[in-house]
């Protein structure tokens, strides 16, 4: 028997944008505190965070048949404090407001209080995890109702957010990338953690029930196998891991091959930047495909 998904691409895009925006806010905050001289990158990260989360919030409102389409339904949603979606909207709205204040202060050349950024990071982490909790509310879908999913989405959100910030830096202000070496080093571990969590999710869901096993089979060998293996695993996970290792080796030999004087024009430097940009773009694609596949491949438990 085939089942139509209760959610589709719009909700997958919302989950992706909300996570990416949350990750970008955390990345911009870390960069601003540890490398304040990378001003353009920090500012871009804050703008990316605000834009992504704001668009994600609009998509949620539209998909929930609230907001612009039926504003009274959105008001009812905010009044239901027992609803997970209500808390999600509160987290998203708070993050949008904080991100907007941070962006405005940045554009006005005013310092951003540490307390404001720390609060924003707290809401960003809540938003990133909430995107997994939201799906888990539908308990009849084993692929969604897993304790692993919120942590997987959190790691993926941080990874895609950092990559969005780095992609801007590599394309627009590559001279600032070197100042963010600490952030790139931390990010290098996130795909490995994400891989472990994906394996854990599929393992536990596959053993949970027949519907869970069917959902995993749809990903590994069934309807969604090509997108899963080629799109998510190869492009979204394996390619960034390989390129990150290649980029590390290129960077290690730059000074010996080119010398400090021609560092900016060195072909090996340009090669390393290209590897980094492709890796960042592939990670972002993988982040969207992860959420799209989780939403679309989930099958419900059939009650006889």
Automatic annotation (TrEMBL):
Q: Where are the transmembrane segments?
A: 12-32, 44-64, 84-104, 116-135, 147-169, 189-207, 227-246, 281-303
Q: Which InterPro entries match?
A: Electron_transfer_protein (IPR052049), NrfD-like (IPR005614)
Q: Which UniProt keywords apply?
A: Cell membrane, Membrane, Transmembrane, Transmembrane helix
Topology class, membrane = Multi-pass membrane protein
In the UniProt record, the signal sequence range is: none
Keyword Cell membrane present in the record's keywords: the answer is yes
Q: Name one Pfam family in it.
A: NrfD
Q: Which domain of life is it from?
A: Bacteria
Q: Where in the cell is it found?
A: Cell membrane
One GO CC term, this protein = plasma membrane
Question: Which family is this protein grouped under?
Answer: Belongs to the NrfD family.
This one is known as Polysulfide reductase
Q: Which organism is it from?
A: Rubneribacter badeniensis
